[in-house]
Hints:
The protein has 176 residues and is mainly α. It contains nine helices and no strands. Helix 4 packs across helix 9 (147-169). The protein starts with 13 loop residues before the first helix and ends in a 7-residue tail after the last helix.
Amino acid sequence: MTLLKIQTPEKAQNDVKEVYDFFVKNMGMIPAPMKLLSASPAQFNLQWRSLKYFMKHPTLNFAVLSTIRYLVAEAYDYVFCTHLNREFLKRQGLTDEQISAISNDPMQAPLEDRERLLVAFVMKAIKTPESVTQEDMESLRREGWNDSDILDAVMQGTVMVSTNTLMKAFKMDAVC
């Protein structure tokens, strides 16, 4: 159990209850990170707004975002999100072999070329941020990505890292 006092599904109130109900209805479960963030209603609401933004992102589709989340979660031993996003990839028709190939080389993702380049860039930015260059940025821009898209994609990865840190620091059971 977590070190924080979180809102359980049975005792959730107001905004937290509404969001929990959304997840149960649409996913059949409540993601553990959302339960953890329920300890801070302000952080919970910020994360929920962010999730809604990404659900309707104008250029970063579900396949790109779930690939980013899966790769970052796997790289940082974020078990809950590795499993969850692996399932999302499977629901998109990927096999275990294809997912393993993506793990070894993001350029193997069954995405458009420009999307694979963005995913690979996100992994570079997350793992070695000091190695990002102006040429990296120009390359992505030539592929039609604007700065907002690039920032949003990297943000999706950095949120995975920060949430993983919170989950581990506060001993949040990934399945609760």
